[in-house]
Design brief:
It is built from 10 helices and no strands. It has about 280 residues and is an all-alpha fold. The protein has a domain of about 150 residues. The longest helix is centred in the middle third of the chain and has 30 residues.
């Protein structure tokens, strides 16, 4: 009988996170979103602390140390050392540019792993997949595409940040420094969860295999079902931080709530069909 205690659920959640590419990317996301005027040392320290923490947790649960994790620790150790020993002028420069440096470094890492034919998500996916599937074309295609989407997400974030620095002369703009970059990350996270089921469903089943509605691929709309809640949260954040016109914040909150309600009404029908035969 499965253990469904709160402690077991907590451990399952931690294990799922550590087996996900998001654990290797979390320090980078934290760095790119936290850094700003007067926050470079704090952002670098938090990112380095998260990098070391995830390596330790992964090792204690029996996982292998991954290339992404080693890259995390090395990069943020250098960045943290700069924060400790660099001059005030260098720190000011890093506060302005380190967010974009972080995103660009991730683009290079992700794209480089694809060019080397070792997409970085493979190491995480192998911890959740039986070894006999590791060399299958489907398994490899899924990881190539997920890695590519992460590279594109960080490329988009880098471009948004560069626009903020070069055109708006600030790395802390509400839209270019925060909202657009968070949106790109959320899309990549959702794609990572959505695409494997889509790819598996595209494989033709043998003629003798009975079909079932639970085997149908997730709808394309499922890739974007996070947007209504995100729009509402953006509107609330805009009002709280006074980062734009009040009418815009109110409009975004209303649009987000209405769209979220529509999505919720559409979702239960799909879930009800798939639930009985989901396992």
């Amino acid at each position: 009988m499965p253990d469904d205690t709160p402690l077991a659920r907590k451990h399952n959640l931690i294990d799922a996170f550590l087996e996900s590419p998001l654990s290797g990317l979390a320090p980078w996301i934290a760095m790119s979103l936290i850094v700003g005027p007067g926050r470079f040392e704090e952002a670098a320290s938090i990112a380095l602390g998260l990098s070391v923490l995830f390596v330790v947790l992964g090792h204690r649960r029996g996982g292998r140390v991954k290339v992404m994790e080693l890259f995390d620790v090395a990069y943020f150790a250098i960045i943290a050392a700069i924060g400790l020993f660099a001059s005030a002028g260098v720190i000011t420069w890093m506060e302005l540019w380190s967010g974009e440096m972080t995103n660009i470094a991730l683009v290079v890492f992700a794209a480089g792993s694809i060019l080397l034919r070792k997409p970085f998500t493979l190491e995480y996916a192998r911890e959740q997949t039986p070894e006999e599937y590791w060399d299958s074309p489907l398994f490899l295609r899924i990881n190539y595409r997920i890695t590519l989407v992460w590279a594109l997400a960080f490329g988009f974030s880098a471009l948004a940040g560069l626009y903020g620095v070069i055109v708006l002369h600030t790395s802390d703009n509400f839209w270019t420094g925060w909202i657009l970059q968070i949106g790109a990350m959320l899309f990549a996270v959702n794609f990572t969860e959505w695409y494997p089921d889509v790819a598996r469903a595209q494989i033709p089943a043998p003629a003798s295999t009975p079909t079932d509605s639970a085997d149908a691929p997730p709808a394309m709309s499922a890739l974007f079902d996070w947007i209504p809640a995100f729009v509402g949260i953006v509107g609330a954040a805009l009002l709280i931080t006074d980062s734009g016109p009040t009418y815009l914040g109110i409009a975004l909150v209303v649009i987000g709530l209405v769209a979220f309600g529509i999505v919720r009404r559409m979702t239960p029908n799909t879930a009800a069909v798939a639930r009985p035969t989901a396992r």
